[in-house]
From TrEMBL:
GO molecular function ontology, one term from the record: DNA-binding transcription factor activity
Organism: Sphingopyxis fribergensis
Domain HTH arsR-type: residue ranges: 1-95
Official protein name in the record: HTH arsR-type domain-containing protein
Any Pfam family: HTH_20
Region Disordered: start-end pairs: 106-127
């Protein structure tokens, strides 16, 4: 089971590791898009866009529906939830560390500074 989860996360993060694919997911979060619509902002061929979409499909984040000669893609957010659950563990880790740092800094600010010692030399002498 752990290996399966690890493989799934590897596939998800691999798919998310490319800016073009992340942008495509952003478009699909708004609504369905054809392969041509997903390719358009990147001035890439339909074949290149299709390769990116295939990676997203393999990660389970995109569904492709063939309607005649048109391929329509839609977002399946469930795998993103798996990645978010994994990331939450680290979010808690950093939140706890930052909360501890904040407490330490506030405690340090609450302690008055020690009185300043006079500089060595003769009293009353101008410098």
């Amino acid at each position: 089971m752990v290996e399966n989860d690890s493989h799934t996360l590897d596939t998800i993060f691999h798919a998310l590791g490319d800016a073009t694919r992340r942008a495509m997911l952003g478009e699909l979060a708004v609504g369905e898009r054809t392969v041509g619509e997903l390719a358009e902002p990147f001035t890439m061929s339909l074949a290149a866009a299709s390769k990116h979409i295939k990676v997203l499909e393999n990660a389970g984040m995109v569904r492709r529906d063939v309607r005649g000669r048109t391929h329509v893609c839609s977002l399946d957010p469930a795998p993103l939830m798996s990645a978010d659950q994994w990331l939450r563990m680290y979010r808690r880790f950093w939140t706890d560390r930052l909360d501890t740092l904040e407490r330490l800094l506030r405690a340090e600010d609450a302690v008055p500074p020690p009185p300043k010692k006079p500089l060595p030399g003769k009293e009353g002498e101008k410098r």
